[in-house]
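quick one: 5-O-phosphono-beta-D-ribofuranosylamine bound model?
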Amino acid sequence: MRLVVFISGRGSNLKALLKAQEDFEVVHVICNQATASGLAIAEEFDVDYTVIPWKDKTQAEITAHKLLLQLQPDLIVLAGFMRVLSAQFVSEFNHQIINIHPSLLPLYPGLDTHQRALDDKQKIYGATVHFVDHQLDGGQIISQCRLTIQSNDTAETLAQRLLSNEHQLLVKTVQHMANHTIYWHNDRLYYNDKPLIEPIIWNQ
Ligand code: GRF
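yep, here:
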């Protein structure tokens, strides 16, 4: 399975995917920030990348669209990509774009998820892999990992503890998609040949 990964910054989820390549291959990285440290990771693993500045969103999406038509990926993974794709762009790649988000969606779409969960005195926290649709952090949820919030957690410690869980969640989800144990059929998502109604819960 051919993957194109979109990033904006650090790229630790990209690195987790690159290290796990076997049933899938990261064929290209698209990044909206020329200074993103994640680009060094692409270089380290010898993966081609393209920087597309997102100042003019329409132009950026035209460029990304053209590139994707050439690359012909089976799956597009948004891994810390901090721009919202337009409804039109997303509809061109229906059922082909997934995102990793640091909260138990539908709770806390958007930014500052760790702090918002702490402010709300949540006890359980986690991350979600979901298909991307026209809504911010919307779209069919595929899988989640969960962890318990500790009384001394700060947004930083929570983010840090979640990150290694995120990496495993993303890799496992992509592996299952590559092996066709997660797949779409007639606009319905299946996992192990049963319609997926509740998120798959995968913890470390
Ligand atoms: C991760 O927490 C991911 O869930 C969120 O942005 C962060 C990206 O981290 N969407 P990295 O760039 O993969 O290290």
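Residues 7, 9-13, 38, 79-80, 100-102, 127, 166 surround 5-O-phosphono-beta-D-ribofuranosylamine (CB under 6 Å).
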